[in-house]
Specification:
Number of helices: 12
Structural class: alpha/beta
Bound molecules: ligand LS5PKE2X, [(2R)-2-oxidanyl-3-phosphonooxy-propyl] (Z)-octadec-9-enoate
CATH class: Alpha Beta
Strand order of the largest sheet: 1-9-6-2-5-3-4
Strand content: 5-15%
Radius of gyration: 21 Å
Length: 304
Amino acid sequence: MEVLWTVPLLLLIPLLMWTSSTFVFYFKKCFYVAYMMCLALLAIPLCVLKSGGRDVENMRIIRSLVRHVKYFLGLRFEVSGWEHLQTEGPYVIISNHQSSLDVLGLMEILPDRCTMIAKKELVYAGTVGLVCWLGGIVFINRKKTSDAKSVMTDAAKTMLDEQIRLWVFPEGTRNQRGDLLPFKKGAFHLAVQAQVPVIPIVFSSYSNFYLRKEKQFNSGNSSGLCSCFNVFLCVRRSSHAEVLSLLRRHQIEDPPKDRHEGDDVRRHHIPLRQILQRDALGLLEHLQLRNPEQRADAALNTNH
Ligand SMILES: CCCCCCCCCCCCCCCCC(=O)SCCNC(=O)CCNC(=O)[C@H](O)C(C)(C)COP(=O)(O)OP(=O)(O)OC[C@H]1O[C@@H](n2cnc3c(N)ncnc32)[C@H](O)[C@@H]1OP(=O)(O)O
Ligand SMILES: CCCCCCCC/C=C\CCCCCCCC(=O)OC[C@@H](O)COP(=O)(O)O
């Protein structure tokens, strides 16, 4: 009797996948969350066995477990400038943040000994939260700036003591408008305090396959299953000299607005945050170019 019910139900899923893009959206999202939760369940004992607890080295396990998930969602990543992450020692990575799908691109290129800064709510996300904790993710309370600042100051020390790289989403929240929200300052304070370079990474806009508000998670055609989308990840060259000299001048803050004698300073003073924001926005626009040759040119031009 039960079998009689199951068969039409199982047939209903492909039918809905075929006919309703909203169903495809929820199906893929639910699959993603459920599958990541299961992978996390697998990762927990592996991490504990490898490191005995919370350790950035666990990110190697997490990275290798997550890398195949893209195939199920019809996503592929095309990376340019990967070699720029092969810089010695600690650094801060900044990147745009569109969706929880960013985790897939992040794991695609995550360098060794690199973990992230995340909102503290993530630690309560079941098995995924526990895995984030085991992977050494630094949790901050965005509602309490003073707490977040002191956690990040501690993180700057840890970066140096333990040779750790940190990935920060300086927009501070997800943004799907195809641009960048004004960068928060934490990532830049972190880099100044630790005196390490900042490496910007830009994910191309997901808008051609994923629109949260419109409930679209396409695969490019109505069958919803077979074709795949490329996400372009562009890593900008980390120019140590340039970034470090800006860091040393502590140009994180905007110049004071009310000082007349500061006019000159104001004219020449472009905070590092704004320089990198402008660069990242430029890259984001370039990555929208669909033609691979144009994109290659764009990457060359930005790798000055
Ligand atoms: C195998 C299975 C696996 C399963 C899954 C596994 C998943 C694994 C990994 C997944 C990880 C993904 C993680 C994704 C998570 C993404 C997020 O959570 S994004 C949200 C959280 N992140 C951030 O918010 C980072 C960016 N925010 C900041 O840097 C902010 O600056 C802030 C520190 C939070 C403070 O915010 P706010 O007060 O709103 O804004 P500001 O204007 O920037 O700062 C105010 C003030 O404070 C000064 N300041 C800031 N930071 C510092 C500092 N570190 N030291 C000193 N001073 C600081 C700043 O200068 C401002 O002062 P001013 O006088 O106005 O200049
Ligand atoms: C309260 C818990 C938070 C989310 C829990 C979702 C559980 C998801 C399970 C599997 C997905 C894979 C790992 C996802 C990790 C990424 C989390 C994320 O992207 O959080 C959003 C945060 O950057 C910004 O939050 P807001 O846009 O300010 O809101």
